[in-house]
Amino acid sequence: MTDIHGVRYDGPVRRATPEQLELRTRYGSVISDWTNLSPQMLLTISTAFIRPQVSDTAGRQWLSAIFAGQTGQAEAAHELAAKAAAAKPGFRDLLPRFFPVAKNSWRIFCSCQGMRILSWLLVAGLFSALMAAPSPLSNKEIGLMLRSGYSSESILAEMSSRRVLEPLDEPTEKSLLDCGASAQLIAALESKVWLISNQEADQARQRAIEIDARRAAQAQQNLEFNALLQSQQAAARAPAAAAVVSTGAPLLEVLKPKLVRCRNGEIKRPDGSELEKKKYVALYYSAHWCGPCRKFTPQLVEYYNRVAAAHPEFEVIFVSSDRSHFGWETYIREMKMPWLAIDYDQLGEMTGIRKLGGGSIPSLLVL
């Protein structure tokens, strides 16, 4: 899995909810919001769990087609919709309504409805995948699991369900013992009781090669998609900036009555003098639900606390992308944000300012 920042994660799925996906990697558990994945990656994951000739195959294909159409993936949308209509006649009458003849336009957006559809599809698909038999364990993976803190007992349990790809040789046995493998684990590997056949091993290796090839192709597609998305966001910023200043009033003057600050755990409205004599003001676009934001914000807090006293001409204003007042307030308190913030109840009137930050968070815009 590769997120919108180009970070790739490898490992089995541990848990999935409509909001997040948790993977078990060699370095421990990794939690990622679905919003950190591009629409192309979401569609790829979703369609990977559509199995042919199953009762819900057509329904999954149709919902995936709806999402693909909403996120600008026209070719995939029409292909999935055609398959769903061929499998289930009830979808045929809906084709002209939802999937008219393609026009010469390219739309890229991600609606809340589309994200809900894909969240449901992905969670259901991942649950099915968790119930299916995963790939066999290699000796290298067993060694990585031991070094990552897995107990020999948990690895034995994993081996009983996944089986083992290759026999144990002397150098590998020494390496596993150095990593803390128990005598019981070594004995189980030496007994070959969970060793798969040579034919199954060849098939598993071939699948791994095919998966790597698909990942490489998907990574390239993601790069192209993100480049296109960023260019569209850059084009959208210019009119957004014009919209902000179209009132004729300076931007900071517009913001003054809408600002709050957290002091001693209480969020209060300042007296309006906080932006006086400020030469450099940075708008910080962030949200409590955003994993990369929660990693970056403490660093920004540390920097602000370190330089603010020596540079009174500098200020930060938090522009929230949170989905509720509770999330906004919780984020400010948890991170102990020392800077100003636009009142959450006022954000609905600040469409132009919100667009200035682009479509990705965290984002820091210095005015």
Throw out a few tags for this protein.
flat; three-stranded antiparallel sheet; 9 strands; alpha+beta; 367 residues; six-stranded mixed sheet
What would you say this structure looks like, in words?
By secondary structure, this protein is of the alpha+beta class. It is built from 14 helices and nine strands. A six-stranded mixed beta sheet has the order 5-4-8-7-6-9. A hairpin with a 3-residue loop joins β1 and β2. About 7% of the residues have low confidence.
Q: Strand pairing plus helix content: what structural class?
A: alpha+beta
Distance between the termini: 36 Å
What is the average per-residue confidence, as pLDDT, rounded to a whole number?
77
| Percent of residues in beta strands | 5-15%
Number of strands: 9
Topology order in helix (H) and strand (E) letters: EEEHHHHHHHHHHHEEEHEHEHE
Summarize the helices and strands and which ones pair or pack.
Layout: E1 13-16, E2 20-25, E3 28-33, H1 39-48, H2 57-70, H3 74-87, H4 95-98, H5 112-131, H6 139-147, H7 152-162, H8 170-178, H9 183-191, H10 198-245, H11 251-255, E4 259-263, E5 266-268, E6 280-286, H12 291-307, E7 314-320, H13 325-335, E8 340-342, H14 351-356, E9 363-366
Quick rundown:
The protein has 367 residues and is of the alpha+beta class. It is 51% helix and 12% strand. It is built from 14 helices and 9 strands.
